[in-house]
Amino acid sequence: MKNSRKNNGGRSDEPARRREAKLDYPVRLLVYALVATAVCQLILLAVRGNGVEFVGRENGPVELAQVVMALFTSGCLFIAAVQMPVGRTLLVLCGCLVGYAAARECDSWFESVFFDDAYKYLAGAPLLGVAIAALVRGRKQLVGESAALLRTPSMTIFAIAGIYICTLCQAFDVPHLWTAGGVSPSPETTKAAVEEFAELFGYLLLAFSGVESLAMAFANGSVETGSVEAASNEATCIEFPTHQPQPVSRKAA
C-alpha cells in the first residue's frame, strides 16, 4: 500500500512539476525576449509603412501601447499585493507609481476632456491616497519586507525598467540635447548619436550585472558549497521575514 501510494503520488506530482518548469524564470526570460523582439519588428514595419511620425505622434498607437502596458503592469502589481502574504506595501506603492505614469502619458487626453493638468488631480490624487494608506497600514513591516522583496526577479526587472525610463528616456526628452549641437548635417549622424547614446546606457546596465556577478561569485555560499543556488541566495538574501509569536513568559501565564 505504501509503495502504491508513493507511486501514485509520484505520478500525480510529475505533471505538476512539468507545468512548473514551463513557467520557470529562465523560460519567462526567453518569452520576454521574444515579445520585445516582436514589438521592435512591429515598430519597424509601422515606420516603413507610415513614416517616422507614426512613432512620435501624440496620442498615437505607440503612446497608446505605452498606456496599456503601464495599466497592465499596475494591475498585476495590485493583484500581487492582494495575493502576497508579505511585501504588500511595496507592491502597492509600485502599482501606484506605474498607474500615475499611465495617467501622465494620457495628459493631453485629460486636458482635452477636463482641464489643464487634470491627470494630477483626477488620477494622481487618488493614487497618492492609496499609497499613503498603504504606507500607514504597513509601516511596521515596510523596511524588512521591502528589502526582501527588492531582491526578487520581479522587483529587479522593475528597478531596471525604472532606471532606463528615468534616465535614458528623460535625457532624450530634453530639447537641449537635440539643439545644442545644431542641425545635423545628415540623418546618419543623428542615427549614430542616438545609437551610441542608447548603447552607452545599455552597457551601463550590463556593467551593473557584472558587479552583481562578482557579488554572487564571492558570496559565502559559493565558496563554502560551490552551489549556484547557495551563492545566489547568499548574494541576494531572498528570504522573507517571518513574524514569530513571542513566547509567553511564566509570569504572564
UniProtKB/TrEMBL annotation:
Recorded superkingdom: Bacteria
Keywords of the record: Membrane, Transmembrane, Transmembrane helix
Transmembrane regions: 25-44, 64-81, 86-103, 118-136, 157-180, 200-219
Protein's recorded name: Uncharacterized protein
Source organism (scientific name): Stieleria neptunia
